[in-house]
Amino acid sequence: MLVHTPFDRRSAIAQWLLTALPASSRDHARLDWEQHGVALLPLGTLFSAVRIPGRLLTTLTGSNESSVLDDLLSHALGGGPVICDPRFFRHYALVPPSMPRTWREAVDDWRVLDVDCLGRGSHLGVPRVDTEERTRAPAPYWAVPMDSAAALCRPLAVARLIAAGRHCMAAEPTE
After folding, report:
1. Which DSSP symbol is given to 103?
2. Which of 43, 76, 135, 144 could lock 122 by a disulfide, CB 3.0 to 4.6 Å apart?
């Protein structure tokens, strides 16, 4: 049985993420991870991202505690990777790169909730793969870390989470 250490897995994940960039830009991204903890990676080739506003998750959980929201995301998305941007109270579920094209109609309906599916032509601030908890107030972190290279959120799980949040938000009394 082959056993991979956590370091080996994180290394493989980082290498995979960096392949979203041209080879000539990868060293710069590594340097950004070292110096700033975040590298800007293009979406739409290896993966895309679904932006989920924190208020949608807060509606589902009744809490705005990051640990509660992270647990919800981990459970609802089957352990698929999610990045949290606490500065704007948003989460980004990493999904297959084909999602922006295939979800166009659904995303149009969800934009009123501030949900969006980001693909080609978009970039995402991706934290270092070992940044798995909120350490600096506005810094992005992995709310649900990547389990292995190319292991992404299942689109149907993301859709169900958004639909559940939308349903709960619609049921809330308006002030």
Report:
1. T
2. 43
25 found inside a domain: yes
Residue 128 neighbours by CB distance under 10 Å: 20
- Mapping DSSP to helix (H, G, I), strand (E, B) and coil, where does residue 43 land? coil
Range of the domain at 49: 6-171
Compute the Cα dihedral for 131, 133, 136, 139 and give only its sign.
Answer: positive
- Could you give the 3-state DSSP secondary structure of residue 93? strand
Average pLDDT over residues 13-22: 97
CB atoms within 10 A of CB 42: 17
Q: In terms of Cα–Cα distance, which of 51, 55, 49 is closest to 165?
A: 55
Q: Does residue 167 sit within a domain? A: yes
| pLDDT, tens digit (0-9, with 9 covering 90-100), for 6-17 | 888 999 999 999
* pTM, full prediction: 0.92
Q: How many CA atoms lie within 13 A of 152 on its CB side?
A: 20
Cα gap 65→152, rounded to integer Å? 24
Q: What is the mean pLDDT of the chain?
A: 91
Q: What is the pLDDT of residues 125-141, one digit of tens each?
A: 999 999 887 666 678 99
Strands (E), 29-139: 38-42, 48-53, 82-85, 90-95, 116-118, 123-127
